[in-house]
Amino acid sequence: MSLDSVSSLRVGIAGLGTVGATVARHLLDGAVSNVVVTRVSARDASKDRGFDMQNIAFSADPLKLATADDVDLVVELMGGQDGAALDLVRAALKAGKPVVTANKALVAAHANELSQLSANTGGAVVPLAYEAAVAGGIPVIKTLRQGLAGNQLQQIAGILNGTCNYILTRMDEAGLSFEAALQEAQEKGFAEADPELDVSGVDAAQKLSILSALAFDLRPDVSAMAVEGVERITEQDISFARQFDCVIRLIGVSRQADGKVYQKVTPMLVRKGGALAEVSNELNGLLFTSQPLGKLFLQGAGAGGGATASAVLADIADLARGDGQALFDRATADMTASASHQAPESEYYLRVGLADKPGSMAKATQILAENGVSIEEVVQRASNDGDGFLPVVFITHEVDESSLDNALKALQNEKNICNGVLSLPIFAD
Amino acid sequence: MSLDSVSSLRVGIAGLGTVGATVARHLLDGAVSNVVVTRVSARDASKDRGFDMQNIAFSADPLKLATADDVDLVVELMGGQDGAALDLVRAALKAGKPVVTANKALVAAHANELSQLSANTGGAVVPLAYEAAVAGGIPVIKTLRQGLAGNQLQQIAGILNGTCNYILTRMDEAGLSFEAALQEAQEKGFAEADPELDVSGVDAAQKLSILSALAFDLRPDVSAMAVEGVERITEQDISFARQFDCVIRLIGVSRQADGKVYQKVTPMLVRKGGALAEVSNELNGLLFTSQPLGKLFLQGAGAGGGATASAVLADIADLARGDGQALFDRATADMTASASHQAPESEYYLRVGLADKPGSMAKATQILAENGVSIEEVVQRASNDGDGFLPVVFITHEVDESSLDNALKALQNEKNICNGVLSLPIFAD
Fold first, then answer.
1. ipTM confidence
2. φ, ψ for residue A208, nearest 5 deg
3. Active centre residues of A (catalytic)
4. Which terminal residue of chain A has fewer beta carbons within 10 Å of its beta carbon, N or C?
């Protein structure tokens, strides 16, 4: 509650790419009261970044920010899961200096060490703020920690990767193939040259693991999470989904039920009209379910210089106001281990390559029925890929995951009638 | 940043209706760490409210909470713009006790006095938190103050009244008349027995005035705000709007441009697909535009026991963590006075009652043209009300407010061709 209005908070920024330079410009323009930029570190000292470097010290070595006497708060915007970014954050926390970072890969991968350093260095909390690490400019960390404080979280469902969402939207709205949509995303700056981390779902999983830690006290561990990317989604799936009045979205779901937390990143069918179905193009969106509030939906820019800078500035403002918190409420050693749990019962979209010959459909539906998978709707398209197999889509009634898995295994064992299955849960909000 | 984990924050709750009882129950269940409920005040001491009163002191007089030694934080949930609620909040702040309230009418009407008391009582800030006063469970105050800290706000556009939104949604989706939709809202508990404050737009205006104070440093003054309610919206308007692929929503807009802040509460046409158009039934939704973030959209329950309790709990958690703020960043005496400014240029929906005789349309369009109002689309319905006038709808190109006002005055002066005009801005997000 107390704010020392005499001495300003002296900020050191490591990394002056688009985000870093935007943050510096806004701070120099007085965007946050009682904050001054005293030192920066970047690859190139001389580059013009649209702000006056005259009163700002420059360090070629970012590590210097952790020890420099003129820096109270370290802002890490270099990126990278390890290397210089990790060295800097680690050193700053050890020196008792608060850190603001936008680096989700680093936070997710080193949660154990960083939670310990930030929860207790020299007997005190050293704040580590990372609003920008999840969903860019949407204040999702603050919403979980402050806006929903006092609530019991039940579910988080989020569109956490703008690249995938752009691709899926363009496949739907412009009829593009996955490859064409990806290329367009790259041309527009919504996808990296190497899109692997995005399209594989790993980037979304890193973000979801951070949200699950805050909401459900779950130790971040991406390797323990079921993660399916968008690479297997075809134009055919998009078009089938439309037929069921749905769109396909890559969704990270984390849900607590019966004392267990289930979490997964996967493409899902979302019924049009639902909040997440309306999240288009490169936007991110999150739907929280909690008691006593009920549902809360947030949507905004999940990446880009302005959005990321916004979240970094908000974290700096918190710290300037004296409101800083450890990475999580406790060291991850004291949190619940991530574990693989059965998915909650769900309806599913099943696209099955079914042999174009008499008896295939009868056999397939028999296998599904024998395994307890009950069918709500079937759509069969006349066209086939010329290999003697037709794409057939089944919409199932609610079914538990193990029954579904058994059914799909049995189906895929019948190689003469089935040449592959794609199963996508149908999102129920 | 420091939290005294030894001594708990002792909370006194005045008002044990649905919200107060829900807050008490959650606090007693340990929803917020380091908080205990020590004292309550309500009309009836003996009523069973679903929690154990055994260790909680009871005061028949709510004012006692301001002075009681066992209360550190006063939670005002009695409601009412003046009277006991005002007495209590005033006394608590004067006694240096932080206050949490859900009372938008009180905050809006007494902003001057309360901002002064909370910004400086005995030389210190006495926190006054009111997350629940605007948009219920949506953490909109925290988003403005923390999530968007460091941003330059440009526009806030919000659906801030669930009653009006329910009525407009049901008129559209179920084809109900205004009266039937209002009655349904009352039966479902989404509207008060006396709905005047809601349907007139005043409730939304009170909330908007609070948001404008936070975002644009504008002194709250509902009487200086242009406010139009939903009473004049007919089934015909809803159906015309649908024809233009729009819905009608009651929107509070506050917008800063050229150093001036324009604010208004009015029904507007919103194009389907836009975030605010998707806010249905009793929900609230807000669209913030700011730099460097861009757009941020929030949607959730704007009223009801659970939603309001959620926001109150979040405020209590802030205070328990040691993060409390004055009502506004400064006393309202030092803020900019609300003033009436020209609306930004906008497209408009004009429903004109036009005489069903030759030359009416020519005359009407001539008057519009003479006043600089250029028409994008016209729709004329065959049916008339039997009074010799036909409803005709004009969609205008962007036009400034004074040109439009002049045109509408001139049109309404031609009593032989025009028997009334309804003009609604078309929302541009």
1. 0.95
2. -60, -35
3. 207
4. C
